[in-house]
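fold-stage: in
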Amino acid sequence: MAVRARPLTLSSARLSAARRRWWRQAFEGWLFIAPVMIGVLAFYFVPIVVSLYVSLTNWDGLTTADWVGLRNYERLFTRDRYFRDSLRNTLFYVVGHIPLTIGLALILALLCNRKVRGVIWFRTAFFIPVITNVVAISLVWSFFFAPRSGTLNWFLSLFGIGGPSWLSNSQWAMPAVIIVSVWFGVGFPMIILLAGLQGIPEMYYDAAKIDGASAWARFRYVTLPLLTPALFFLSITQFISSFQVFGIIYVLTGGGPANATSVYIYYIYQNAFQNSRMGYASAMAWILFAVIATITFVQWKLQKRWVVYD
């Protein structure tokens, strides 16, 4: 006797209801993130596409854009000596800023990781400059660097040293900017490294002490290797932020003296908003994007050689 198959209407109805429920939940999810997505599209992706088009035109920001193709890029690499000067100044700043900032941040993190009374106040004091307005900080430091009435030259005079005109001397202007930027930005990498230090298990140090390792050996063979993920993160973020320095330069030196502190971003600002050459500035911005993306990619590939993931 043949057995008739049961109809699948109930299962089909459940499947249809599950699909409707899934689509409703998906719609609600997209509805919640829609404001953020609209903001990202309107203020990130659309400007990126527009800037690529503008970089291929001769546009002053007001009149109709004239298509020039790759002429802006050709001029940057062949005829614009200020472009090369801005790159050189930026590299000088990057080479001076990144090692000093990360090195000082590591020292401060090691000090703030000690269990002493009042250490939380020191952590706060070191981090406060990060959340302070860059314009206010630059103005205060401009008085500090004043050639005659400045605190720094007064301090040097106590030892019989005649301080230079820091911000008006082409040899000392960039070192002065680096000093301010290190003081201003050391708090963030300090917090990152402090978190990394506190994440290292104590058992590693106990094992090293049992083996007779000195304090330096424990730092070299335990602390430093286990901090490499944090150092890798900082190497990328500090490199990107160093290439984008602007506020300190704008307030302290205005790119001077004699273009000694005219870094890449400041030169983009001059072309875009002072000289009304939006197309030229957009081409510079895309070159900056290519440089940062390339070096970040290289850093990411090289991490396997020195970063230790516990």
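fold-stage: in (second)
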Amino acid sequence: MSNKPFTSLMRFGPADQRFISALGVAQICSWGSLYYSFPLLAEAMSTEFGWTKTSLYGAATLGLLLSGIAAYPVGAGIDRGYGRRIMSLSSLLAGLLLIGWSQISSLIAFYIIFAGIGCLQAATLYEPAFAVIANQMGGDKARQGITALTLWGGFASTVFIPLTEWLLAQVGWRETLMVLGTVNIVICASLYAAVIQPKLAPLPASLLKKSSELNNRQTITWALQNPIFWALLLSFMVYAAVFSAFTFHLYPLLLERGLHSAQVVTVLAVIGPAQVVGRLWVWKLAPHASIQRIGSFVVALFPLVFLGIAWLPPTLTVLISIAVLYGAVNGVMTIVRGVAIPEMLTRHSYGTINSAIIAPSLVAKALAPVGIAMLWVRTGGYNAVLTALFLATLILAVGFWIAVVLRQIVYPDIFK
């Protein structure tokens, strides 16, 4: 796969292109194997063992809760220069756990395995990768690097949902997990070890004094006293819950809407390319627009997704169109989430301050799938679920708009 469609757009040098391309391939594999494969594997395990939807998604909840706990030490560790060690070793362990998952036959063992996978997600997905980019590239190049990485990552669902579906049909869920585990060990761990610098690059002299004044702990203390932090936390926490619930439940939701499994996979497969289209839109049409303006527009589109699913005819064409909209706005939101902290809050200690926002977001991300499963059981369908998700996206939008107002009116000189 050529890296020209992605990194050449960013006008990076050869070393930066290799760095972002390697991270991008690894992120496709990390997201695809550790996150997007779960709903399909859960359906296959439910068929074999007869486990309920609530019990299966309870394991995902436990994993994501532990991911939230692990987020802060991971971010702080990356800020101290241990990014290569953290991401490569975590991918190695994740691969071993996926292989271990392929051998389980009890619900308790499933929960134990997924608890470990959840912790390792905090060290292998976007948040640690963003922190590595911010620390290794710095300045305006960090925003470009984050945007480029999300272009790569947008193909995770496109590659791994059909791949997982095909493997399940050909060899079964146990062998599928062994393949996914091998991908983490051979591809992800190797790439992270090869391209992430073992130590942080020295800070410019102009930042040395500021760095000594704003260490990690001081940054967190300052952030907790800033209302922009809390507004962003609210918005990103609700976004994480909506993203998680929708990702885990879209497959059964579309089945309930009358689509058969092949049509559902078709709908799911367009989300990844749509994410890339949304991110390319940011690069081509809004390269110099503030993240505040981009985010303010994007968060207003999320409610339309759930209104469309709830009220429009559930035909394949309509649902593909809605999936394209969702993919595009979700793709842009990933950039907003990665760049909002240095552009709206603080440019120092990215890994630490980002993890302080991400940790509660991961808790919400953990609780959302099982909460939605319980709502589905109580109401007997996904209509009430769609209503809940629509209301949540309104809170997501309002939270971000409050952060923008605070940044522009109340704290306009925050970086001076």
